């Protein structure tokens, strides 16, 4: 069947650097007890060692004794929000959370701006009330009226009972000396399970259900506890409560010539000199065959470890107080260097030496610093980090408005190993659930949610034949699905010759959905993978003459936990396999989930 493909092209607009809280370490919140919190009512919160949720029971969550997990189990007469004792202004926060089925909660920044936590698994068009949404504001005129709010870009929510990861970078509102608000609060970004949901969203005022409608410079964290069962772990907070570093104007000296190292020009008389308020490579009148030395005084309000960042196209050295702390003698394009440096309070002398010989890349130079209690501050002129000339190529994206297939090379990552699949098919679905099928092993190598493929590496110029998923990937590895019983516990990563494996290709039905065919161990296999309820993948294998001395190795993992009702949680509740008649076996490196061969086998992957 002839297949149509739809590509969209996005213009490459140069190089933009946004770095928030990469260096500054977030402080973990202890979940050994509830001392970090205070409740505004009867306390329905507790500390547990482990939690689990049942996909088929609304708002149900089971707990096991221990420490490390914060759990809300609301009861009709016992529903309270949880409020931190400490208050925060600008902050970065990250945490893992688990939703019970049909459950609802919210994470309030400063107790006033709600990031929605919700069981939104399978929702196709998420709203402000879905997981990761910034909830609406409210007015009473005279009835309650909801307005504004910001829906997440994509639905990145996982299934109930799975651990999910959220990262939030928040900028508090600012006030003058008289207490008048001079700038609104802002969400710099929100990421859920690796997806960016929001960027640079201004919050004009508190959302619904705040502790107060009055905005403040510092306020507590509040977690909503009056709606449904929810659990948290690995909560980490970075409080940016300090004054940022400052930098004096840069003095510069410029030398013209094709230099291979600083010794070729540092003893020469400069061709030009002057001063710049901000760092900029264009102190030189040339785009190449020049060198420049920049000096300035960096003032850090607090002594301690700081992260200095330098980016350049060409070569550079970076010195602080006369000591060489970074250099790049390789001729590189847009290489970024981050180095941790102990700095005293007060002034430190900064010296940047930048030299560029050839015209095969556009000039670029940038410098920034991040401290123990302030965010990254960039000191370059905006034009100094823009790529001039031809710049990067247009990005070529493939969408899946209908079932879409693309053959390409694919690089997959499993643990610390990277592998290139040379015979693979990427299958996209309008439900935004996609997978890569490894034709050489009859394996689902990876799955992902969101948009389909970035085909730029495949089609730009001559290309390398590969494509990349446009969403965070859940790697399932790429090893044979059907293996001999004697080899079940062995780490077999490629198809053995003795398997007699033959690729039969695939056929496409009227809905343009593929069914893959192959032979292995004398059996003929038809492999059908379908999206179910816009939520998960169901796999059905039809096997003629199933071998009596082989089995189906569904998944190999570090840990597999039986949850009941044929449901298995994989690798610390990161995703589920639902497989009737499956069994768990131990191996030297972890565990495997095994199914006996039969003429028809069905199991599901839920995430």
TrEMBL record:
InterPro entries: AL/BT2_dom. The keyword Metal-binding does not apply. It comes from Aquirufa salirivi. Keywords: Hydrolase. Gene3D superfamilies: Exo-inulinase, domain 1. GO terms for molecular function: hydrolase activity. This is Family 16 glycoside hydrolase. Residues 40-238 form the 3-keto-alpha-glucoside-1,2-lyase/3-keto-2-hydroxy-glucal hydratase domain.
